[in-house]
Design a protein that fits this description.
The protein contains 14 helices and twelve strands. By secondary structure, it is α/β, with parallel strands linked by helices. The termini are far apart. The chain binds pyridoxal-5'-phosphate.
C-alpha cells in the first residue's frame, strides 16, 4: 500500500475512524468500500502456504476489517465479530471454568441472565446477582472463588449506571477479571477498557449496526493474550459471524457517531417531557439531573445514550395503552436502530427472568422501555402525548 492511506487512525477523531476504519482492503480494483468475501473456504498455494485465510469460520477478510475497526474504536488489542450478541457473551464467558464464581448485576439483559442462570450454572459456574450501583454490595459478594465481574452499564432496562473504575479496581484486588457489556452506549459514548475493563462485549445488532437489519456481536479484549484466547474459543465453538453480516455492520458503523448524537439529543427531550407528565411516575434516563447516578454517568460517559425507561402511574393498562396507541414507536424487542421502538420488559426482553428476579431488579408491570430513533423529536413527543392522553 502507498502512503496515501493511513494505517494508524488512532490520532483521528472518532467519526473519522468510523468512516476510514476497515477500508482500503482491495488492492486489485481500489474499491472505496470494503469488499465482501462470501466464500466458505480459500485455496492453498501449496501444501504449506495459503493467503492467510483458510476457512471462513476461522477467518475472513470482510470480518477481519470489522474486527480491526471495533478493536481500535474500543481501544482493545483484538476483537472477534460473532453471529449475535449472545454468542459474544457466551464466547467471553468461556474464559471461566466449572467452580468459578462470577458477580453480575441484578438488572441486566434478560438473555444474559438466562445464559448465566439457566445454562452456565448447570455447567458448574456460580453467580451472585447484586445491585452494582452499591459498591458495598459488590464488595460483599466476592468469595475466594470469584474469577470475574460482569458489568452492564447503563443497564437494560432500568439504565442504572455502574462505576466502572471502582468495580474494576475491586475485581483486581480479588484477582478477578472484569467484563463489560457496552451495548447501550457503543464505544462512541463509553470506552470501558479506558477504565481498566478486560473484556468488552457488544450486541452489534444495536447501535453499532444501527439499522435493525442484522444480528451480530463482538468481543474486544484489552490484551493480546486475552484476544488470542477469545479468538481460539470463537473458532472452536463456531461463533463467528457471516461475511455479509460483517459487511452490513461495517456499513452501519460508519454513521455511528452522527446517529448517536441525534438520537441522544431526542432522548433527552423525550425524558424531560415524560418527567413532567402527570401519568408518569418515574423516568429512568441518566441524562436527567434526577437520575441517581447522573454525575457518575457524566464522568465516565461521553453522552447519555438514546435508551430510556419509565414507570406509569396506573400500572399495566396505561403501560399497554402507551405501547399500543403510539403510531411512530413499533412494539418490538431490540433497540439502537434508526426507528423508535417501545417495549414492555415484563413480557418481552426480560420475560426469561423469573418474576422474583424481575422484582429484585425493580422491573414491574408499570415499566415501559423506549429506544429513541432518528425521527424528529417533536413528532415522537406528540405521539407519546396523544397515546398517554387517550
Ligand atoms: C445489553 C444487551 N446485551 C446483549 C444482547 C444480546 O444481543 P443479540 O440479541 O444480538 O444476541 C442484547 C439484546 O437485546 C442486549 O440488549
Amino acid at each position: 500500500m502507498s502512503d496515501k492511506h493511513l494505517t494508524d487512525l488512532s490520532h483521528l477523531h472518532f467519526s473519522t475512524q468510523c468512516v476510514h476504519g476497515g477500508v482500503h482492503k482491495d488492492q486489485q480494483y481500489n474499491s472505496v468500500t470494503t469488499p465482501i468475501y462470501p466464500t466458505s473456504t480459500f485455496y492453498w498455494n501449496s501444501l504449506e502456504s495459503h493467503s492467510g485465510y483458510d476457512y471462513t469460520r476461522s477467518g475472513n477478510p470482510t470480518r477481519k476489517a470489522l474486527e480491526e475497526s471495533l478493536a481500535a474504536l474500543e481501544g482493545g488489542a483484538g476483537c472477534v465479530a460473532t453471529s449475535t450478541g449472545m454468542s459474544a457473551v457466551h464466547c467471553a464467558m468461556a474464559l471461566f471454568s466449572p467452580g468459578d464464581h462470577i458477580i453480575a448485576p441484578a438488572d441486566l439483559y434478560g438473555g444474559t441472565f438466562r445464559l448465566f442462570e439457566r445454562y452456565l450454572k448447570e455447567k458448574g459456574l456460580r453467580f451472585t446477582f447484586v445491585d452494582m450501583t452499591s459498591l458495598p454490595q459488590v464488595t460483599a459478594a466476592f468469595t475466594p472463588e470469584t474469577r470475574g465481574v460482569w458489568i452492564e452499564t447503563p443497564s437494560n432496562p432500568l439504565l442504572k449506571v455502574i462505576d466502572i473504575a471502582a468495580v474494576t479496581a475491586l475485581a483486581r484486588q480479588h484477582n478477578a477479571i472484569t467484563l463489560c457489556d457496552n451495548t447501550f452506549l457503543s464505544p462512541y459514548l463509553q470506552r470501558p477498557i479506558d477504565f481498566g475493563v478486560d473484556i468488552v462485549v457488544h450486541s452489534t445488532t444495536k447501535y453499532i449496526n444501527g439499522h435493525s437489519d442484522v444480528v451480530g456481536g463482538c468481543v474486544v479484549s484489552r490484551t493480546p493474550e486475552q484476544a488470542k484466547q477469545i479468538a481460539w474459543t470463537c473458532n472452536a465453538l463456531g461463533l463467528s459471524c457471516a461475511p455479509f453480516d460483517a459487511w452490513l455492520v461495517l456499513r452501519g458503523l460508519k454513521t455511528l457517531s452522527i446517529r448517536m448524537d441525534a438520537q441522544q439529543a431526542s432522548a433527552l427531550r423525550i425524558a424531560r417531557f415524560l418527567e413532567q407528565h402527570p401519568l408518569i411516575e418515574k423516568v429512568y434516563y441518566p441524562g436527567l439531573e434526577s437520575h441517581p447516578q447522573h454525575q457518575l454517568a457524566k464522568s465516565q460517559q461521553k453522552g447519555f445514550g438514546a435508551m430510556l425507561a419509565f414507570d406509569v402511574r396506573d400500572g399495566r393498562p396505561v403501560a399497554e395503552r402507551v405501547c399500543m396507541k403510539t403510531h411512530l414507536f413499533d412494539v418490538a424487542e431490540s433497540l439502537g436502530g434508526i426507528e423508535s421502538l417501545i417495549s414492555f420488559p415484563t413480557t418481552m426482553s426480560h420475560a426469561s427472568m423469573t418474576p422474583a428476579a424481575r422484582a429484585a431488579a425493580g422491573i414491574t408491570e408499570k415499566t415501559v422501555r423506549v429506544s429513541v430513533g432518528l425521527e424528529h423529536s417533536d413528532d415522537l413527543i406528540a405521539d407519546l402525548q396523544q397515546a398517554l392522553n387517550q
